[in-house]
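User: what does the whole thing look like in 3D?
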Amino acid sequence: MEFEWDAEYADFRRELRAFIQDRRTPELLAEYAATYGSGGPLIGAFHRELDERGWMRMCWPVENGGEGRNLLYQYIFVEEMEYYGMPYGNLTYTSIAPSIVAFGSDAQKAEWLPGIYRGEYCFAIGYSEPNAGTDLASLRTRAELDGDEYVINGQKIWTSLADVSTHIWLAVRTDPDARKHAGVSIIVVPTDTPGVTIRPLYTMYGGHTCETFYDDVRVPAANVVGGVNQGWGIVMHALNHERVGLAAVGALARLYDQLVAHLRDRRPEKLEDPVARRRLAELELDIREHRALALRNAWIISRGGTPIAEASMAKISGTELRTRIANVSMDLLGREGGLSVDSGAAAPYEGRAEFNFRLSPIFRFGGGTNEVQRDIVAAAGLGLARG
Amino acid sequence: MDLELTETQLLLQEAVRSYLEREVPYDRIREQEKAGTSDAVLWKGIVDQGWLGLLFSEENGGAGGSLVDVGLVVEEIARRAAIVPILEVAAVGHVLERCGEDVSDLLAAIQAGEAVPVPAVWEGAGSEGAPSVAVRDGVLRGEKHFVDYGQSATHHVVAALDGLYVVDARTPEVTTTPLRSIGRTPLCHVRYEGVPARRVAGLEASALLVRLGRSLSAVQIVGGLQQALDMTVEYVKVRKQFGVAIGSFQAVRHHAANMAIRVASTRLLAYETLDAIDRGVASDAQAALAKASASRAAPEVTMLAHQLHGGNGVIEENDLYFYTLRAKEQSLAWGSFDECMAVVAGQVHVEPDWF
Ligand SMILES: Cc1cc2nc3c(=O)[nH]c(=O)nc-3n(C[C@H](O)[C@H](O)[C@H](O)COP(=O)(O)OP(=O)(O)OC[C@H]3O[C@@H](n4cnc5c(N)ncnc54)[C@H](O)[C@@H]3O)c2cc1C
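Assistant: Here's the predicted 3D structure for the full assembly of 742 residues, as structure tokens:
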């Protein structure tokens, strides 16, 4: 075993960090906070700058416009961006683009990838349905071939960003007679196609997600990704990428550092209190344990492997830790810990702990619920047969 | 000993619950959350129903209820997530009835709905430390932080250096600055710039106020957690995945069972403490312990409720968020888990008298 980063990675982290510090303006952060991932003009400009440096697609294959770099660069990139609370592209970039690279036809890559890395395309993800959550393979949104078009009918829920997206990455049933996993396809639906209806769903953390309805929506058959009825494998591949993002350490480390900085600047007596210090020490322990799992997960991927139990472990530890850090921070701060950003200067570090408490539930059941992840650890990691 | 509610208490609980279900629509609560206001219509209803009378003896025009009775009302109101200063008025009312000097006018005004006094206790960023606010020549100056419902109250009962004082909160010498926080209930910072203050009780009353505030806060948390548990149990019975109710999966059942264990233990400690206060035998540590239990249970139970509700639990159309957010706010009020455990730790028994 050998834990030291090779020099080129350390250099990259330094270069990236200096760049972030330079571009991290209050205006950009405000736009990011106000748009909950849907983006805005400043974020768009920032993404173009990132892309000019090659960083948005450095780990893609060279033939798809990337640099074919080791995936650990991507890991470092996400860690730093998350730590500094910078927008680095939503799931379009972290989950959909790698799936297009892996499964898309040459024509599809040429059509969609440049739009993604230029920040012009946003893909909403349409897997979940009202009755197909954990049991995703039971999805019922139907796509029927009519000439060289598919006609889509059905309903999705939690199609986040659909209202600001250019495309929807839609999981549909193309063969109703096949076993449930076998009859699913991925088809890309331009969001402005007639028959697509979008309704917002407002959430307890302030942002919103969407319900989407499909009423005789006609899409070229050429928009099917990776072959008809081949969708399940693609969904699993994309979800794996999504999970790596969910396990990111940066945001958690940042919550910790902001808590300590607030105590140091505004409540120094707390840092004298051995009990409070012990609580901080436990958080540090939690974060370091989680970082170890997240890094191992990324390392396995970077070596060409497919982490299964390891990915689930990191997903569980990171998502549960987000709740714990937010909660412990608020408990340590006492009543001021509950103040939200609307309280202005009275709120400790812009109410980030309070916000993360409200936000944290979605990570524990999103991207594959933690109950299912524990089953995966038991089955794939420990070889325990299901009852 | 009787670890269950009496027949009369069950009737009271049922009466309060059905009244609130009938009279307090959730949409009205959503509007009040946005506006940052409290529910004046419900407060009038509470007055008309005579529930405030439970706080006071018959000599003071009340119905002579026990603190457990009062706790039941507080719990049910929390269970409906209604936005009224019931805990605040109950805490102040009980303390004034018990320790107040010459306060019968105020007690009558509370029961008539003319006075809505709330406690103003804490001065720091958290809920700890002794008050430093002083009264000289009948005039009070200073600041209080985190006063729940301070902006709509008629009076503040201020914890000062030497005891409790009542001030009229509607006078220009009292300025309130509203704060927005996780619970979405009215909260403010208050400045008292030379407001006439009437002394109503000594330091033992201030200590009682904190003990009672903590215990009622625990009961309030229990109300919200019970509702989150009940909603979750109903949900996992009807939500189907893989062709069966998710309540049939062992992982789901264990989460629900863990929620129930927390709610049950916290409920017993909270009511035991209220009863001990009534009997005059509660220590500061006992009240802090009950509150610590509830404060710890609050995020645990509500986060499990979210885990079992999946996506449906986080949208504002669903009522679950009321309980998640209120319970976390309440877990910080009157002392967070850490603040309350510090009180318990300060009085750790070397040889505790367990039984
Ligand atoms: C804000 C938000 C954004 C989202 N964004 C997207 C998006 O962009 N695209 C998209 O497609 N989806 C999205 N989702 C959906 C998300 O992926 C689902 O919420 C998730 O898959 C869980 O499904 P569910 O909500 O239906 O919960 P359910 O499947 O109903 O699960 C409820 C509970 O039952 C448990 N359970 C279910 N089955 C089992 C079992 N067999 N064994 C043990 N326990 C079980 C679960 O673990 C969970 O605790 C989003 C959700 C939210 C809230």
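In plain terms: The first strand of chain B starts at residue 117 and ends at 120. The longest helix of chain B spans residues 203-238.
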